[in-house]
């Protein structure tokens, strides 16, 4: 992408921008993985490290905004360069949000305590694995300008949403059976919701990658399968 | 050197076409400067012609009012029509054509006459004014439409060459519109102007679009992006791509267009 410009300094700046976004993505991905680990193992020290690591993501976000602003002002980019620069700005925003969700998950490590029965806990690493796969693949698709991979990430979001629906129902069932689990299960519910949101951001990023590479919008029929907003009656839970 | 790629990508014009060029080929002596150009210029639109130096964009622009006729070695084939009238027809009066199709050049070129006479020149030549009052009205309204009236109304009799560069260019635009043309051709009209004067001319181009059809050659891609509704990209005498301006600068179809607008060759 960033090659063969008549002004070679522009190539270097575009490459620097890409490297920054990918490094930021690497940290966000690692933080999500660490947050899930911390929850599963009730590892307070790991949770703390994850929480403080979020600052690095915020620093990258600021640097990317500055670099993008400078490139727009000084280079007046066009076509694929313009799409790339604007796209990375959007991707950085998504990564920043993903970082926040990872931090929020890590923060619940202490609160969740031992109040949760082991059974519903299994859902979290299952969702986590899937979300991490999506984040990793979307970063790869950006790195390699791989449109097919980006489309595949977007398509996986529906499966993640379904997984979230089933976790939601499962947790409601536990809470109805034993009200003492409500505190723990509520925390798990938020964690599951955060993971589901990370999937949405990975999907946004996939759409940005698609636009950067092709100049076209990914077809609009994005699968949306999170139906929990419509569940109100416990009888619907089963 | 690789063989010339003659592919043209055209996103069809929406709305009415004012100028239609079909299969236009042009030679300067033995050298072919335009290869089979097919281009529609939309009515009341600004069409920008862009491309690296020597790509044929100015040559094509000059075909539209037969300015190339003055070059002895120049030979042209194909059809160009304005509102369906063949402008290369035997019966056509070239002077009349150039009244229908006005032109503004790269360097402001006011006549060494007063501001008033510069604008009045065309209407006088073509006998467009019925009386002195009418002529004054034409001059005033032309200067107004060119956004120059307020700046020069108190010195209409001082020489046009005494104005600043940007004012001179707007004077030339006023002179071009004084004969009520249908089309205005502009060949890099801002390349000799500072950014503020450029902005004024660009603002003017956007206003003129209501009443005229405009084709503009520009080396500034930012300018093409700012002023035009459609853009045509020329390369090595070939029309590579033409379509809505936004598409050319955000997601061009042809790799040559992409390479040019992103600054990868030129």
Architecture blueprint of SSEs:
The complex is a heterodimer of chains A (238) and B (266).
Chain A lengths: L7 H34 L2 H32 L3 H34 L5 H4 L1 H22 L2 H31 L4 H33 L24
Helix pairs in contact in A: 1-2, 1-3, 1-5, 2-3, 3-7, 5-6, 5-7, 6-7
Chain B lengths: L8 E2 L6 E12 L2 E12 L3 E5 L6 H7 L10 E9 L2 E2 L7 H7 E4 L10 H11 L6 H14 L3 H4 L12 H13 L5 E5 L7 H14 L4 E5 L3 H7 L2 E6 L2 E7 H6 L4 H7 L5
Parallel strand pairs in B: 1-11, 4-9, 4-10, 7-8, 8-9
Antiparallel strand pairs in B: 2-3, 2-5, 5-6, 10-11
Helix pairs in contact in B: 3-4, 3-6, 4-6, 6-7
Strand content of chain B: 25-35%
The count of helical stretches of chain B stands at: 10
Task: Please identify the structural class of chain B as seen in this structure.
Answer: alpha/beta
Task: Tell me roughly what share of residues is in helical segments of chain A.
Answer: over 70%
Shape of chain A: elongated
How would you describe this structure in keywords?
heterodimer, A: 238 residues, mainly alpha, Methane Monooxygenase Hydroxylase, Chain G, domain 1, 7 helices, B: 266 residues, alpha/beta, Rossmann fold, seven-stranded mixed beta sheet, four-stranded antiparallel beta sheet, 10 helices
Explain what the structure shows.
The complex is a heterodimer of chains A (238) and B (266). Chain A has 7 helices and no strands. Chain A has one domain: Up-down Bundle (Methane Monooxygenase Hydroxylase, Chain G, domain 1). In chain A, helix 1 packs antiparallel against helix 2 (44-75), helix 2 (44-75) runs antiparallel to helix 3 and helix 3 runs antiparallel to helix 7. The mean pLDDT of chain A is 90. Helix content of chain A is 80%, strand content 0%. Chain B is an alpha/beta fold and 266 residues long. Chain B has a domain at 9-110 and 183-261: 3-Layer(aba) Sandwich (Rossmann fold). Chain B contains 10 helices and 11 strands. Chain B has helices at residues 57-63, 94-100, 115-125, 132-145, 149-152, 165-177, 195-208, 221-227, 245-250, 255-261; strands spanning 9-10, 17-28, 31-42, 46-50, 74-82, 85-86, 101-104, 183-187, 213-217, 230-235, 238-244. In chain B, strands 1-11-10-4-9-8-7 form a 7-stranded mixed sheet, with helices on both faces. Chain B has a 4-stranded antiparallel sheet with strand order 3-2-5-6, covered by helices on one side. In chain B, 44% of the residues are buried. At the A-B interface, helix 3 of A face helix 8 and helix 10 of B.
